[in-house]
């Protein structure tokens, strides 16, 4: 473009030295910043507010900010290297060299869709649904990304949920179910006072409840090895009891080992439970409200969209119902945080009744796989919502591994009383039956394509985020095979933008119509890593049954008669 | 000549070889040039994570001089190529040393607050900062540059040796998709080098 202005620097790099055998080196560094103020507008509790960037609470001018940033290069690079190095170690253990590369590519893509706002008293992380429709703070977009946040910094997940909770608590959203998003067009979080946001009621209630419990769990660990994130226990364990500030405020930014500007610790044995109680107490009525929607509507979901809205609405979706039921079960443990024993019992009983009905409704006649919808007998689905059963440690119940770390042990439950609608089934191992894990693992091996595991029997396209969620809870060979096909896709796909999450599993691995790109949902690629650290590090042990070799019944084969 | 790329969660490096100009008598080995883009992920520092800025470092290793030229254009501040933009060049001194920073500050002439075009923000200021050894302008800002001044920057002969133009990044190598992303970013960054 000949007629456009450009903004340049030139620098002479002097390498010409008289002692010329040893090559000289030189370096020059530039910084590139996009400064916006305000960053968004948000229908907060006090009304529509222009939101400043969070950095403005620490730097009084742009000049101060950029001078700091420029001179901080060595420290920033060293902190970044610490993360990258740890990520590479964990990802290699969790997968392969390919997995190391995939998660390394993903991390920046997730953060690239976010912007920090709010204040240290009440920090907020805003998120945009890039390329799919520009919606603001979409719950079913945060959900697939949450494994990245649980692994990297659960604090940022809390900041993502904060504006949704604040807005809903303020009464500005009229529906009983959780909202789809805070605004149709980022950066305008003007809400949906008419309640007509994208209709995914079971999806969003299920998502936010699962994330809520995951967040509570991330706070409660005794040793640093049991923490969900490697960096959680670094820093001061001082607890801020002020009810007017966030349970996760940033008023305690500290200097450690000469490094300025570090967060205090996240949860842990001294303050984790206190933070969890403070957080849950403030919004408890919302969690109950969303759960009551699920109790009424999740077992047999009516005609509605799931998060995979490009596939269109469908009634009685098996995977969606499972999400809702796991949400109800999650509520039981959220209630436990504030010692509400009656709610603990109530939600546990309902969820257990529902999950056994769900198994009846959702599994195919021949018992080999989960159907896409209860009433679609020839269909199948990638049951990616099974991931939450393991992540939230439900699968460890009734086993010798404690499902919770010491200061969150399950308390003994009172027997069911007469006015309960259903008697809970007899105690068993886990929540979702192990058989479901086994049949799905085999099924995925049977139906996977060149570039991965299709989303369901309707199309050959898939979602990379859901592939990782699903593969995380399969047997080792199946998990490896799915990972390899995704890695193959990354190398061979004709898509040429920041990683799409929606792609064809055959052909050129291209876009199936919609051009998704640069979306933060790719945080789901971290699903393996997050599971490795879940349940005090015991989550994967609870899946060992998937790799146990069953004894062959040799007699049957020999008795075949002609 | 493009040698390849490597990356981790926060950094992507592209490495090139710039062959020696034939005018040099000793025919030294090519200079190795690495462009390193760092967008830090710092889980222990929300303060740093909240800063909307990243770093681009150029490393060279060799034995003949290289002149580096880097530019950005207005596509960082508007999704619409027809937008009018405005800019200034600011100098900051850093403490008492003779070191300073120079920053190009570019924004849409009329910012469209909280609006986007094609998924891109129409408000906000781009700050492109480089080091300044002797700030000849003191602390005063230079007057707004005009279109002609832009052409003045290009007046010098475009002798280019070993174009390290990122357009030449091949797309078939392993896990190169993120490089294509950075390639698209690099449409706004043109590298040429000229040796003495």
Describe this structure in words.
The complex is a heterodimer of chains A (562) and B (196). By secondary structure, chain A is of the alpha+beta class. Chain A is built from 15 helices and 11 strands. Chain A has helices at 62-71, 73-94, 97-111, 139-152, 154-169, 201-219, 272-297, 318-337, 341-362, 386-391, 434-447, 464-471, 476-492, 527-533, 554-558; strands at residues 6-13, 24-35, 40-44, 47-51, 114-119, 122-127, 188-189, 254-256, 259-262, 461-463, 502-504. In chain A, the strands form 4 sheets. A 3-stranded mixed sheet of chain A has the order 4-3-7. In chain A, strands 5-6 form a two-stranded antiparallel sheet. In chain A, β5 and β6 (122-127) form a beta hairpin. In chain A, α4 crosses α14 (527-533) and α6 packs parallel to α8. The longest helix of chain A is centred in the middle third of the chain and has 26 residues, at 272-297. The model of chain A is unreliable at 405-419 and 552-562 (pLDDT under 50). Chain B has 196 residues and is mainly β. In chain B, the strands form 4 sheets. Chain B has a 4-stranded antiparallel sheet with strand order 1-2-3-4, with no helix packed on it. The two termini of chain B are 19 Å apart. The chains are: A alpha+beta (562), B mainly beta (196). The interface between A and B is large, with 99 and 84 residues. β2 of chain A pairs antiparallel with β4 of chain B.
């Amino acid at each position: 473009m000949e007629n456009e202005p450009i903004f340049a620097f030139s620098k002479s790099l002097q390498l010409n030295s008289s002692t010329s055998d040893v090559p000289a080196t030189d370096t020059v560094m530039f910084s590139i910043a996009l400064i916006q103020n305000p960053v968004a507008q948000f229908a907060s509790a006090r009304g529509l507010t222009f939101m400043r960037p969070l950095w403005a609470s620490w730097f009084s001018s742009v000049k101060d900010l950029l001078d700091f940033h420029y001179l901080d290069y060595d420290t920033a690079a060293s902190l970044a290297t610490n993360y990258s190095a740890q990520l590479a170690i964990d990802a290699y253990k969790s997968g392969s060299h390919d997995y190391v590369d995939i998660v390394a590519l993903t991390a920046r893509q997730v953060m690239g869709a976010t912007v920090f706002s709010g204040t240290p008293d009440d920090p907020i992380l805003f998120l945009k649904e890039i390329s799919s429709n520009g919606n603001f703070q979409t719950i079913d977009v945060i959900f697939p990304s949450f494994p990245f946040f649980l692994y990297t910094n659960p604090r940022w997940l809390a900041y993502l949920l904060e504006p949704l909770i604040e807005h809903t608590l303020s009464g500005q959203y009229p529906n009983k179910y959780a909202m789809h998003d805070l605004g149709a067009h980022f950066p305008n979080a003007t809400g949906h006072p008419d309640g007509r946001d994208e209709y995914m009621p079971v999806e969003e209630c299920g998502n936010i409840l699962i994330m809520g419990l995951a967040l509570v769990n991330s706070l409660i660990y005794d040793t640093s090895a049991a923490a969900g994130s490697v960096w959680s226990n670094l820093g001061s364990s001082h607890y801020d009891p002020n009810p007017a500030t966030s349970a996760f405020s940033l008023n305690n930014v500290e200097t450690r080992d000469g490094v300025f500007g570090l967060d205090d610790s996240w949860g842990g044995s001294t303050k984790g439970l206190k933070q969890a109680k403070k957080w849950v107490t403030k919004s408890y009525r919302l969690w109950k409200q969303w759960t009551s929607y699920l109790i009424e509507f999740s077992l047999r979901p009516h005609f509605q969209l799931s998060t995979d809205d490009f596939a269109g609405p469908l009634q009685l979706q098996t995977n969606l119902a499972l999400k809702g039921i796991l949400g109800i079960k999650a509520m039981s443990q959220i209630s436990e945080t504030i010692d509400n024993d009656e709610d603990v019992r109530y939600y546990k009983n309902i969820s257990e009744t529902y999950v056994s009905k769900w198994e009846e409704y959702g599994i195919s006649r021949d018992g080999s796989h989960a159907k896409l919808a209860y009433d679609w007998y020839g269909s199948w689905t990638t049951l990616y919502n099974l991931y939450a059963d393991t992540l939230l440690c439900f699968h460890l119940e009734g086993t010798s591994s404690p499902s919770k770390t010491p200061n969150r042990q399950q308390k003994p439950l009172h027997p069911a009383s007469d006015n309960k609608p259903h008697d809970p089934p007899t105690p068993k191992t886990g929540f979702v039956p192990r058989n479901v894990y086994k049949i799905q693992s085999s099924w995925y091996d049977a139906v996977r394509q060149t570039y991965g595991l299709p989303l369901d029997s309707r199309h050959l396209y898939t979602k990379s985020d859901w592939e990782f969620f699903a593969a995380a809870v399969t047997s080792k060979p199946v998990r490896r095979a799915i990972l390899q096909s995704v890695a193959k896709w990354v190398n061979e796909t004709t898509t040429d933008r920041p990683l799409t999450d929606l792609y064809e599993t055959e052909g050129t691995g291209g876009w199936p119509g919609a051009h998704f790109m640069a979306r933060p949902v790719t945080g789901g690629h971290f699903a393996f890593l997050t599971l490795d650290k879940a349940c005090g590090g015991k989550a994967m042990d609870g899946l060992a049954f998937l790799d146990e070799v069953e004894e062959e019944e040799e007699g049957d084969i020999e008795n075949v008669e002609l | 000549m493009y040698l390849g790329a490597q990356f981790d969660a926060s950094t992507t490096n592209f490495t090139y070889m710039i062959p020696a100009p034939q005018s040099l008598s000793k025919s030294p080995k090519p200079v190795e040039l690495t462009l390193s883009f760092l967008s830090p992920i710092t889980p222990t520092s929300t303060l740093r994570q909240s800063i909307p800025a990243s770093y681009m470092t150029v490393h060279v290793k060799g034995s003949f001089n290289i002149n580096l030229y880097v530019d950005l254009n207005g596509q960082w501040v508007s999704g619409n190529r027809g937008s009018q933009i405005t800019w200034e060049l600011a100098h900051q001194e850093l403490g008492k040393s003779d070191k300073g920073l120079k920053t190009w500050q570019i924004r849409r002439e009329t910012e469209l607050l909280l609006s986007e075009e094609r998924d891109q923000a129409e408000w906000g200021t781009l700050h492109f900062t480089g080091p300044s050894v002797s700030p000849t302008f003191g602390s005063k800002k230079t007057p707004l540059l005009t279109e002609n001044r832009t052409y003045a920057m290009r007046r010098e002969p475009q002798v280019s040796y070993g174009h390290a133009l990122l357009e030449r990044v091949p797309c078939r190598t392993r896990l190169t998709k993120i490089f294509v992303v950075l390639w698209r970013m690099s449409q706004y960054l043109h590298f040429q080098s000229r040796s003495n």
